[in-house]
Write a structure and sequence with these properties.
Helix 3 links the parallel strand 8 and strand 9. This protein is an alpha/beta fold and 423 residues long. Helices cover 37% and strands 18% of the residues. It has 2 domains: 218 residues, Rossmann fold (3-Layer(aba) Sandwich), CATH 3.40.50.1100; 100 residues, 3-Layer(aba) Sandwich (Rossmann fold). Helix 2 packs across helix 5. The strands form 5 sheets. It has a 6-stranded mixed β-sheet with strand order 4-5-16-13-14-15, with helices on both faces. Strands 12-8-9-11-18 form a 5-stranded parallel β-sheet, with helices on both faces. The two termini are 27 Å apart. The structure holds pyridoxal-5'-phosphate and zinc ion (ZN). Pyridoxal-5'-phosphate (PLP) binds next to helix 6.
Length: 423
């Protein structure tokens, strides 16, 4: 439905669309989608596909998961924020929330699966420790499009869908998330497979950017502040890119929302680097003793060791362009903020969304924000308890397990068989 070209952020040159993730000239930079329509026209399509004129896809899917935005009453009163809006990305049908895997990763998975189908015959490979895996498994289950999902073995209990994911191949790695990423690269070295791309995938970012689009359309203007908990920061980049498009549209205001992004103590590398106004992450300074730190956070989806922070068009640029702020949130602050939110608004939260709520409380208490202005609180996940009332959750079993450091050669035969079965 949309008409777009890809451009390298660094050199500005057009890049051919073949599910391309990087500038063919070798620039260490993100690509961006440049849409022919400069004004946002909502489509008569379900869920996220309402925004498909600003998604890098031509077709849509008959799936009604999408972002939801509403004006808060109870939390707004509690925090004395008269213009608090909540972007809810999870399962909460009473509010229109129909993301059955309960996080905004489904907003990334939906356009990504369409983009892949339209531009490559290869099978997508996704490495994840949880929410991303579940989102792609669900979209595979609903569409019948195969995917390969590589996860650390201990993430298997988090993998479920609401319909059986018959076309998905899950590989469990006996190791941590980093080992899973390494093994997914091994799989991508085989013919017939392609890496999903994470932050470098424009479909993923513009999918997450629909949270900002939905808020602007609902409120009638862009918010002044955008609050989100980050692990990679891809959602922050996406919110900034969406806001730049909305500014060019002309109907939603001229000031870019400032990004208020949060991480979970003791693992807060981007908070540390940004507070020094440094473009480059320094492992010893920004993430000392990272393994221990990662094992101690309340929300482990916020623990990416290689975020797209320094890369042109990445988190540092998004923060600089919007005069952003970063918050470090303790586990205790997150827990009590989550309890407060659930008590007032009436839905359970993903731990990352509790971290984000705690950062908003910090902002109010420290006087970092003008409390009369418009706030968008991105609740990036929630409704895990609510979804069980309406759906039977189907566990997803791994097709096979490999040890950390296994090579592609060892699994080539099995994978070829799996892809054959899928055809
Ligand atoms: C992945 C995830 C985040 C962090 O998103 P990024 O913008 O990619 O850092 C926050 N909340 C939830 C629920 C997530 O699954
Ligand atoms: Zn380039």
């Amino acid at each position: 439905m949309s008409d777009y070209t890809l451009r390298c952020v660094l050199c500005g040159e057009e890049v051919p669309e073949q599910y391309t993730l990087a500038c063919p000239r070798g620039h260490p930079s993100l690509l961006r989608a440049d849409y022919a329509e400069k004004q946002l026209h909502l489509k008569n399509a379900p869920g996220i596909f309402r925004f498909s004129s600003w998604l890098p896809i031509h077709g849509t899917l008959p799936i009604d998961a999408g972002p939801v935005c509403y004006k808060s009453k109870a939390l707004a009163r509690e925090l004395n924020l008269p213009n608090l809006h909540i972007g809810f990305n999870g399962y909460w049908p009473e509010r229109g929330g129909k993301i059955t895997t309960c996080s905004f990763k489904e907003l990334e998975a939906l356009p990504t699966m369409v983009r892949a189908k339209e531009n490559t015959t290869k099978t997508l490979v996704i490495a994840s420790a949880g929410n991303t895996a579940r989102a792609f498994l669900q979209v595979s289950a609903l569409t019948g499009v195969p995917v390969v999902v590589v996860v650390p073995e201990k993430a298997i209990p988090r993998l479920w869908t609401t319909v059986p994911a018959d076309k998905a191949c899950v590989i469990a790695v006996r190791g941590d998330y980093t080992d899973a990423i390494r093994f997914s690269r091994e799989v991508c070295s085989l013919p017939g497979f392609i890496e999903e791309g994470g932050a470098r995938n424009v479909a993923r970012r513009d999918g997450m950017g629909t949270v900002m689009l939905d808020a602007a359309v609902t409120i009638g203007r862009m918010p002044d502040y955008y609050f989100q908990a980050i692990g990679s920061g891809t959602g922050g980049i996406a919110a900034w890119e969406a806001a730049v498009r909305l500014r060019a549209d002309g109907r939603f205001g001229t000031a870019l929302p400032s990004l208020h992004l949060s991480q979970n103590l003791p693992f807060v590398p981007m908070v540390s680097a940004w507070n020094d106004r440094r473009r480059n992450l320094i492992a010893e300074t920004d993430m000392p003793d990272s393994q221990t730190a990662i094992s101690r956070v309340y929300s482990d989806v916020l623990t990416n060791r290689e975020p797209p922070y320094a890369i042109p068009g990445g988190v540092f640029d998004a923060m600089s362009a919007t005069d952003g702020r970063m918050y470090a949130v303790s586990n205790d602050e997150a827990c009590s903020a989550g309890t407060l939110f659930t008590g007032l608004e009436g839905i359970d939260l993903d731990p990352a969304a509790a971290v984000c709520t705690a950062s908003l409380i910090q902002a109010c208490e420290s006087g970092n924000i003008d409390t009369n202005r418009t706030v968008l609180l991105n609740i990036t996940g929630g409704g895990y308890e609510r979804v069980r009332e309406d759906h039977t959750l189907v566990p997803v079993q791994p097709a096979f397990c490999v040890s950390a450091g296994a090579t592609a050669g060892q699994v080539n035969k099995e994978l070829v068989e799996i892809v054959k079965i899928h055809e």
